[in-house]
Input
Amino acid sequence: MHLNNSKRIVALGVLAALSLTGCAAGTSGSGGSDAAADCAPSDGKVDLTYTSWIPGIDKVVDIWNKENPDIQVTVQTGPNGNGGTYKNFFNQLSAGNAPDLGQIEYDALPNFRVQDGLTNIASCANVSESKGDFIDWTWNQVTFGEDDSVYAIPQDTGPMAMYYRKDLFEKAGIAVPTTWDEYAAAAKTIRAEGGYITNFPQNDVNWFAGLVWQADGKWFENDGDKWDVSLDGAESEKVADYWQNLISDDLVSKVPAWTDEWNNAYNTGSDWTWISAVWGANSISSGAPDTSGNWAVAPMPQWNAGENKAGNWGGSSTAVLKGSDHPYEAAQFALWLNTSDEALTALNQEANLYPATKDGLKLPVLAEGVPFYGDQKIYDTFAEAANETNADFTWGPTMTQTYSDVADGFGKVLGGSGTLNDALKTGQEKTIAALTAAAIPVNE
Amino acid sequence: MSQISAGAPKEKLASRTAAMIVMGISTLYFLVPIWWLFVGSTKSRAQFSSTIGLWFADFNLWQNIHDLLAYNDGVYLRWMLNSILYAGFGALLGTLFAAMCGYALAKYRFPGRELIFNVVLGGVLVPATALALPLFLIFSQFNATNTFWSVFLPSLVSPFGVYLARIFASASVPDELLEAARLDGAGEVRTFFSVSRRLMTPALVTIFLFQFVAIWNNFFLPLIMLRDQTLFPVTLGLYTWNSQVNQIPEIRTLVIVGAFLSIIPLIIAFLSLQRFWRGGLGAGSVK
Output
């Protein structure tokens, strides 16, 4: 490990400098964007490797392999990104045997970009042209706002909405909250009924980021030269204050998320709502089976009445990793995987992936009512949310560290000391320190 | 009688009770997680989160096992088979190498013997985890990552086994016996396999068990080396599934049942081998 780290830090410094001067210059052929000239089809039969942790992805890839005898894709798998696959990618990149394609979540892409682990596929046929097919914010995630650059193809998203117990709200005579003010008021009524409006999780910092995202907050920005870090920006502060009040007034439960205790809070009707991503639909139906038919989905509460803004939680892309001998074929496969109806339908059926394309949101499988939610067509709400998500939210290059530092602070708050804003301030300082330590330039 | 020695038996009883309590508590401590795992694997997904963890709800074990074996074309069985291959053959060959090496270090005199032994001893101190990444880079040089051998070959090495074999060989294999064997015309290899190996059996069983468990539980090396899920050992496979639980909650039951089934081979290995172990030690002590 020691070897790896020191090597990586050295490489990082060099590459960060390289790639960032590349962006600043904005000319083709500079820095990492060396793909401009050489994205041509290879001769003969091509074998690609694709690493993804999506269960059942091999069945989707089989469809491609049957239709494309000359471009055969082998699926490799492993644990989810932060569970080990990202580390494996970096090991493989330094050993020179990375797969041609890899699944990378949006919040990890900047890390791979800064460490020069991605191939620019902008000049590969059909790639830049497909910009309009994808939901606006996802495209910014894969280009990093650089000119003539596409480093990955968006795969899925996690637009956020509010899951709520329709039956309990009706019984208690509470109107479904449309603003955060109404949500806080509902929280008091629900607490008086003996329940909690929702749960505040310690470790889902990317969930909290989704809330900040909805409030038009930004945690990171890259001006092409240096990174701006603003975990403690004004919008972040507003969101943190809001939840701090709910926590201080004991209006939300404080159970660790994804545990039995947490499932139970929903299953027994003690927690009434969950602001969550589209994929959360499955988490509830499996964690709270006794409440089937009682749930419904509404848009996220808004900061200003009449607005229609949403945040996003999760989602990933298909990137062509550095060192691939066949970027053209890899890009064509990635486009097919993430835009064709057959692939998107299969991905949704195998693994509940929610497409990142505008057309994908209209897939027949997403137009059906879901029995667990009283046959509501819940995906209509999420499709709207996906289109209303702020396109300018940017992730930083050290999200794992940021998440864990902020989560430490959140833990203290739930334990009764400090505030969410303190946690964000600490996260801010530690993130800047981490970027500086990795020789990534920061505006302080 | 009762008046004279009232103190002694009472103390004995008290200390025995105390010992029993301590042992009882530690037994509970070790068995409760296994009990939880067993109970958990008998539950349906719905009841898993809604009923108490340490007692049964509806008995769903067979259905769960059936689902586990059917999921993803039965890849779980493949993982079990892989684990058995890695751990079984790895431990067998590893034990053989450790025994030969330890025996040679104990019974032959040659220059550098102590140096070699000390280097091996130093190897005991290096955790296997620290070697995984260098191994990955070395195997990358030969394009041998993501192969059966990338996990199997490193598993054959057991510095602790060499240490144990040396200690045991010098204590349990008398030089006179080796002399006699040589006088009778047996070659060194034959002496090792037909005389010394038998005397060393208890140590070998111990080394085998240690090595078997170490390979079975080895997780980091396969994590770094393997990408093809048909090569995964069961530990890595279950970890992979478990990392998906948030988004694909259906898998959770499979992880629980899979974890439960994956400890069974270990239990079998221990129960069937501990007879040799004790028998060997006992035979040695009587003579």
